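Replying to the earlier thread about multi-chain prediction with a worked example.

Input:
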Amino acid sequence: MQKVKKIGNGILFGGIIFLLFLVAFERFIEIPSWLAVAGRMHPMFLHFPIVLLLISFFTVWIPAGSDTGAGAGADADAGEDTGADKKNEWLDLLRLVAALSAVVAAVMGMLLSLEGDKAGETLVWHKWGGVLVAVFGFLFYSCYDLLLKKAMWVRPFTIIATITIIVTGHWGADLTHGENFVLAPIRGEEKLAAPEEAVIFADIIQPILKRKCVSCHGGSSLKGRLSLKDVEGMLDGGKSGALFLPGQPEASLLIKRIHLPLEDKKRMPPANKPQLTETEAALLYAWIRSGAGTDAKLFSLPEKDSFRVLASAFLSPAGEQSMPSYDFEAADEEKIASLNNNYRGIVPLGKNSPALSVNLYGKNVYNAKALEEILPLKKQIVELNLARLPVKDEDLKIVRQLENLRKLNLNYTSVTSKGLEHLGGLPHLQELALSGTGITSAALEKLLPALSISSLYVWDTKIDSSQLQSLQKKFAKVYIESGFTGDKGEIIALSPPVIKTPAGVFDKSIALEMKHPFGGVEIRYTLDGSQPDSISSPVYSAPLTIDSNVTVIAKAFKPGWYGSKTVRSSFIRRGVTPDSIILASSPDPKYAPTSTALLTDGQLGDFANYANGEWFGYQKNEAAYYLLFNQPVTVQSVLLSMMQNLRGHIFPPMKIEVWGGMDKDQLKPFGKVTHATPAKDEPSRLIQDRVHFAPAEVQCIKLVVQPLRSLPRWHDAKGKPGWAFISEIVVN
Amino acid sequence: MENELLQHGLNISRRKFLSRLSIGLGSVALGSLLVPDLFSGAAEEEAGFMPGIPHFAPKAKRVIYLFQNGAPSQLETFDYKPVLNKMMGQDLPESIRNGQRLTGMTSGQKSFPLVGSYYKFNQHGESGTWVSEIFPHMSKIVDDLCIIRSMHTEAINHDPALTFFQTGAQQGNRPSMGSWVSYGLGTENKNLPAFCVLLSRGKGNGQGVYSKLWSNGFLDSIHQGVQFSSGENPILYLQDPAGMDRAARRKMLDKVAELNDIQLKHFGDPEIAAKIQQYEMAYRMQTAVPEIMDVSNESDDIVKLYGSECLVPGTFAANCLLARKLSENGVRFIQLYHQGWDQHGNLPNEMRGQAKDVDQPSAALITDLKQRGLLDETLVIWGGEFGRTNYCQGKFAEDNYGRDHHPRCFTIWMAGGGIKPGMVYGETDEFGYNIVKNPVHVNDFHATILNQLGFDHERLTYRFQGRRYRLTDVAGHVVRDILT
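Result:
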């Protein structure tokens, strides 16, 4: 043990002398490359002296005799004196090793600092701190007994030495991690300057350099003899020459270095350091290209300058988090909640925003009180929407009290020019929507100078186009939207009226209702199959009572518009309804509804949809039905409602025959109709064929419908059998 | 005896146990200081998210999505490719397709003849944007639009592609976009649902839409899309049955609410409270909905703007007008579907009809929102679920051809809501087959929309079956280049 100590003692003494030598003659020294490796191990090695020194300092604070702890019982057989001696010896060794490591670390640090070029301020402080720590370590070991004798000295000594270690370590951290590395998280983000205010170097370039470059090229260390801390250093350049050529980014060292591959030795920032983002690199490039201005303002550059465009975007990140800031306090959340109701929504603009947006709804429940009630929030309300409510002129007196209002929507309210006068006292109002109100151009001319409006909406008001032009001329900074004015000369056709009563079969009588959704429209109609016109045809005003078969044809008219297309609808009166129907032949299995009741359900069917399960379809078989009545009835006609869809091979039937009698097995032929084959371009629609015959009393009727045997020559599928689709049978 | 020794051996007294436990708990407590919102209950919802309040002030408060169902061809509308006209009928070079997958409908074709647009293109607006002649009205407002020519998707067939666009996943049962928005922003007008759906159908070859597209998925059922139909009763089951007047209905609701209240006090289930509120909302909707459906007070100018078809319920024009009215009344998300854009054949003929249905109303909606000062806060989106191939499907003729599904590039447009107007974003190659610049994936599209509505798409989440779900699932980047 003694031998080890002796050697250690020697090395320690040698080391401290070597260190002092290095300090004294640092200007003359050049480091061989093999020694540089040792120097570069300084950031790793320095942790040993810190820990060892602190532990050895700590031992002087342990009260004497505290060594009889839990472990003491283990070597109870050893003598007390020998135990204390042994302990002291180990502590002595600890102090030696600590001092040694401090000296070695300091030497390494010196070697490392000599490698660099220009010493920064922090580096100088760190260097002297390191030397001091090494000296403290040395003293603590070699003068321990002396110190101990003056017990009052040893503790203050350790305190001072500990502080020195901490401060030196902090400077070291600043060197490797950048300035204020430790405190950065609690200092908060630097605020970005507003683009209009920003100075080119101070607000855009310098922050980038500070974040990514200055830790090596700045105050604390000056690698490559380059300081990027301020404009001067930047303009001076470094060891390799000027940093950039204004206007020539491609030829500039700075741009070259930041675009070298990551593996390249000369790449900046080096691979192990935080890298420039794409935006930052693009900004540096654009900055040099635009002439590398420094003290000028960003907005002094031309508007389309790429640096100005990029930097503006950089300073005000689009979309996200671009919450406008307000200088008033948020309102009480409970207060807001209590003022919310079914017809009044009050919500913050966003999370953590004190500003409120208010929407009022329900023209039947609105009154001025609904506005008065929100006055407790008058500071916070920045948006107010009163569109389509019966807001009166004097209600705007309440609105005027919302001192921070930015956006006001009064579209289609009862506000007039008189009311606008009240809005004069809204200093922050930016957007004002007055479409569909009774305001005039004169009122706006009076109001606008008092406000700082940026957008104004005046569609559908009394302001004509010449007034609008003069307004726009007078207030060039205001965006005035007058909206769609339309081609005044253009006349277009109305949409047709709607026959609300569904077409179909009725018993006895039916109320026929029509309507048109648009205001000011006249519906004219005919019931005799002729085309309605705008002069002689009756005007629809109330539901028509119909008690016979009619086809109504209707058309809509309005001054300033072309009349609409016509609509038509057929209503068929039914005399008797069969009590049951028997299918005497089966329909095609694909178009065979399950219930025969569909044939007498009063619905004529949807001719656009033959596969909806309501149509009975026949192609190979003829259709045959027995209509049975429980009591004898007198009948004189049978009507069939069918489909015509020529492209779909659905044609009117060739022939319809009607038989009748009191008994199913004894029927007499009553009558028949045949149907001409339709022409090629007839549209798809519903068709009705009626068979008339002499009135007769019956309990059974038989119907036979013969589908077209072969499609006409003009048809794509000529010669094939046609289809017949039947949806309704009406007996009178 | 042995037992007692064992206990002694373990040597844990109650006091010791408690004191150690307190140290352990102390350490846990210390560690938990680093977990934000651990005990504030926010973890139950999502950290920092309160339903109804966006993460940051939104640019867009509402969305109107004019979905062109069936996938309109980008090559006949907004993506002008004169090379295709020059090379009409020549085979698609293999170097362009590069073995990419096709649908089963054309993968068996022996040749892939390139086909150029049947319609002419012209430049419009200050932006000089190329638009096809079938959109004369949209051409006029092109300076208000941001046309994205570089959309791409993963699905190649209608159902998965549509479901992907609407819910962020190709399989069903996830919440629809509108439901997410309703969940995130809440309702603006408590008398109307936050998410409404309007359907229309053109004469072109069509594909169906189905209610899973506007389903609330695992979100609360109040976020489900409410479908408005074109008939006398726009919302099913909303009207009182014949013979029941408002007073009787009110009385009945009050009684039901009383009974529900008893249950609520007994069980404390918040779903009961929700039920009471929903009944009340339906009652208020009974007056609010007919007011909105009524177009009789619209001015002549408005009807001329949208075209007189807007007076015919169930048309795309009527739905556009209704969408404006709904959004004006605070409905957050209005989803329109116009069906009939699936032109596998007979394209030149069918597309003209489809375009006639949608051109004027789509442009009118933009103009109408603008003149009311609402376009700034309303995001309008127009587009289909994928694009169409640059080669002909089936029999080739210059004036009669078809196009198959093409997910690799297609065009949509957006307007208002903080999107840059008068802009064309993204670029496809000269054949209109692949994207060469600024691709926008469906997830990116969703992320961008949520961003405009004030949400960080990564933080608008809902915990379900043990994990958090997002509209963008695990992908998506906000396309910042198109934001104002």
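The two ends of chain B are 83 Å apart (CA to CA).

Feel free to reuse this layout for your own posts.
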